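cache lookup: miss for this entity combination. No prior model stored, computing from scratch. Input as submitted by user K.M.:
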Amino acid sequence: MSIEELIKKEEKYLANVYSRYEVAFTMGRGVYLYDTEGREYLDFIAGIATVNLGHCHESVVEAVSEQLKKLMHTSNLYYIIPQIEVAEILYEITKGFKSFFCNSGAEANEAAIKLARRYTGKKEIIATVNSFHGRTLGSLSATGQEKYKKPFEPLVPGFKHVEFNNIEALERAISRDTAAVILEPIQGEGGVIVPDDDYLRAVREICDEKNVLLILDEVQTGMGRTGEIFAYMLYKAEPDIFTLAKALGNGFPIGAMLAREEVMNAFKKGDHASTFGGNFLACTAAKATLSVLLKEKIYKNAEKVGKYFISELKKLKNEYDFIKEVRGKGLMIGVELSIDGREIVNKALEKGLLINCVHDKILRFLPPLIINKKHVDRAINILKEIFEEKF
Ligand SMILES: Cc1ncc(COP(=O)(O)O)c(C=O)c1O
């Protein structure tokens, strides 16, 4: 089917909610995607921070294929062995966090908000301006970007927003009815906003002082993206609850809400559930993904190559004055421009490089964590070509 036909059919049959680039992919291997014409693309967006081990990673494909032949679904009426196995791996990594599994990031945050209210018996949740936590009504209420929220009011009551990376604002906002603070360690959809190195630790201290739970939304920062297995390890600020999704199944849909044992134990039977949550295939994918991530220490590669990538982007900043800032941790990288970045993304697509742009002016790079310097050099050369032709 040609791209023109696809566009027509999408218009006719699908909800009009996505602005898509004019390409459809039919195959992926490692850091490359292939379109309907067989053209190769270097994928520096990885399904939006999802395919961290690269497309169709052999271990994940094999494990899921084997499971697919055996059993797909029974529901949580019965014990699910891969679910328990993934929870055990996560318990080991986190030194004692228990898991609840669901199917997406938004659902994981819903579960976190419910648990915080259940454990504390309090209602108020403090989130940050410019944050993104998902599109369901609860996670949208936590989200700090009006454009996503306004048309869907009234949202869930009890949410307050304070400036990100501002400790005093947070301290002032906490009241006697505050159950939890919810934050992304690095704001992703907000434009790769990296807080001061000591921010998260200071948030942890305030939460301890005021007896408030700290929920970290690691949906985007988790699973090695920032150079550590989870970003809270990078910032040395352990949450009470944290959420995962995106890369947990290396592309297979799965979400998880993890909490310290004492906090998780506040959930009683029937308090929360999901028909598909923690199903055989998703947990098999997560088990294989975690095992590769840990065995091969892929997050260390993210740290090393991320540093190189950032230094190469900073060189570009010295050459082109429309580049205002280069920022990021590991392979979660943003380049803020003084010009519109969307045309650059389209030009990159034409040249076989997939990147993304948020808030019109921030180029975002979220490649698979398995990339090496050669991939970075290729991406940098393509960007240079575009900048030379255009500006
Ligand atoms: C930090 C963060 N939280 C939550 C979500 C929502 O995840 P999902 O789209 O899987 O519901 C996203 C998605 O981009 C995210 O970046």
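stored under new cache key. The longest strand covers residues 323-329.
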